[in-house]
Design a protein that fits this description.
Elements: H1 6-9, H2 17-21, H3 28-39, H4 47-51, H5 58-82, H6 94-127, H7 139-149, H8 153-159, H9 165-191, H10 196-221
Helix pairs in contact: 5-6, 5-7, 5-8, 6-7, 6-10, 8-9, 9-10
């Protein structure tokens, strides 16, 4: 029999667990596909199309968590190799705290700032008759985009403990290039709804902040 309760039951409120559960309702195959898409320099379609209106926070959370622990592990190995072995090595758990603050902080707050800037500038362009429209990306999609962009730091962190400094620079530079290309390629269609000068400025800020992340990873963990 027909029922008119469908639209009502589909509502999710901010204070309910079901509201947050919807962002973790994704299977392993989808997460792996999204990770692979974030690692490919030139995928066949944009990441937002791959999300298909169903962004998740499950993948971004576990990617960030994996990056944090691998940075701590390989950063500790790097410190051990650089230390004098005539005395007992002391684990530096500040590395773990630093990795968590850096990765979680960047992945949580930068996307929110970008989303807020897009909402502000796109609505300003629309009010001013500049041809802009409302930004077509949600804050959860921003989180997903930045979260999956972190996937490249897993292999980079695994190999950047080398005592050969130039190799570490190369590995981190490759990680930055791959993730920055991923972000700019997928964000450009979104930021382009704003004025031309604003679009360029937003892309420069995105790349600049991402360069800051890469520099922090290099010098905090693999100096």
């Amino acid at each position: 029999p027909s029922s008119n309760t469908g639209p009502i039951s589909s509502k999710r409120y901010l204070w309910t667990l079901s509201f947050y559960a919807q962002f973790f309702d994704v299977d392993t195959t989808a997460v792996l596909h999204r990770c692979l898409s974030a690692l490919l320099p030139f995928p066949h379609k944009s990441f937002l199309d791959i999300l298909d209106g169903n962004p998740d926070l499950y993948g971004p959370f576990w990617i960030a968590t994996t990056v944090v622990f691998i940075l701590f592990l390989t950063g500790t190995i790097s410190q051990y190799l650089a230390s004098h072995h005539d005395k007992a090595f002391i684990y530096n758990f500040r590395l773990l705290i630093g990795a968590a603050g850096l990765v979680y902080g960047y992945t949580a707050f930068v996307p929110v700032g970008l989303w807020a800037a897009l909402k502000w500038f796109s609505s300003s362009a629309a009010r001013g008759g500049g041809g802009g429209g409302d930004s077509s990306i949600s804050v959860v999609e921003c989180w997903a985009l930045y979260g999956y962009a972190n996937a490249i730091w897993i292999p980079v962190a695994l190999i950047s403990w080398s005592p050969v400094a130039i190799l570490n620079y190369i590995f981190v530079a490759v990680g930055f290039a791959v993730s920055a290309l991923f972000l700019t390629r997928n964000l450009w269609p979104v930021v382009s709804v704003t004025e031309a000068k604003v679009s360029r400025a937003l892309v420069i800020v995105v790349v600049g902040l991402h360069a800051g992340l890469a520099i922090a990873i290099k010098f905090l963990f693999f100096a």
